[in-house]
Amino acid sequence: MLLSYEPTKCINCMACTNVCPLVHKTALNGHFMDRRGCSLCMECTKVCVSRALEIIGRDLTVEEILPELLRNKPFYQNSGGGVTLSGGEPAMQGDFVLDLAKELKKNNIHVALETSGFCDFAFFEAVLNYVDLFLYDYKETDPELHKKYTGVSNELILDNLHKLYVLGAKIFLRCPIIPGLNDREDHFQGIAGISLKYPALEGLELLPYHNLGASKAGRMGLENRQVFSKASRETVEEWERKILSLTIKKP
Q1: Which end of the chain is more exposed for a tag (fewer CB within 10 A), N or C?
Q2: What Å distances lie between residue 202 and 44, 65, 101, 188, CA to CA?
């Protein structure tokens, strides 16, 4: 669970300062929040009448969440859809994901799993028979730049991709493109190379950067997150043409 604070909803009633003066303080312009002392007791949310302070997320068991998902089974059947397990990284809650995927398959529901690919391959082996489609990220071709941008090398990610492919998993490759970071010729060549190396991929999609999460980051106390420029439609179409040209095998 996380504590969300939306300043535009705050009416400066200062009720939160009474229950948690260590975190909630009075400043010249009203309420000020110092998250360094927050223990996530969530007592402040109980007295916030304007709902500027809210709990984000819930802890649920498979038994609790399954009825919610099964309620939509007719919709899945009519639309050809199903349930997508996402995150964060689902592998970080591997036991829960495995148990939930098993229950969904018992009920003949299509299961997709979004993943960065950075995890022990034992997780993929465990869920392989219960996941119909892996939505697999490919963020950066250069190993050093991958480590710079994400904190880890892409070696394990590529190794897991190869193992999943060899085992016959259905994989849809998704490639986030951020202007100024990975919109480079060598990365586009890397994406095309993956497509050519694994011709039985279910598909490949470029995901242009958007800043829809910027406001959420602020509510979570992550105001210093870097925001990048969005690419124009014309630029995105040029990226797509580039990838297409690189994936066409020359005679």
Answers
A1: C
A2: 47, 29, 20, 19
List phi, psi (to 5°) of 100. Answer: -70, -45
Residues 28 and 103 in one domain: no
Sheet arrangement for strand 110-115: 82-85, 110-115, 133-137, 171-177, 203-208
- How many structural domains is the chain composed of? 2
**142-179: pLDDT as tens digits:** 999 999 999 999 999 999 999 999 999 999 999 999 99
Encode burial over 15-34: b for 16+ CB neighbours within 10 A, e otherwise. Answer: bbbeebeebbeeeeeebebe
Closest to 35 measured CA to CA, from 211, 224, 227, 215: 224
State how far the Cα of 69 lies from the Cα of 76, in Å rounded to an integer: 10
3-class secondary-structure state, position 227: coil
Q: Same structural domain for residues 201 and 226?
A: yes
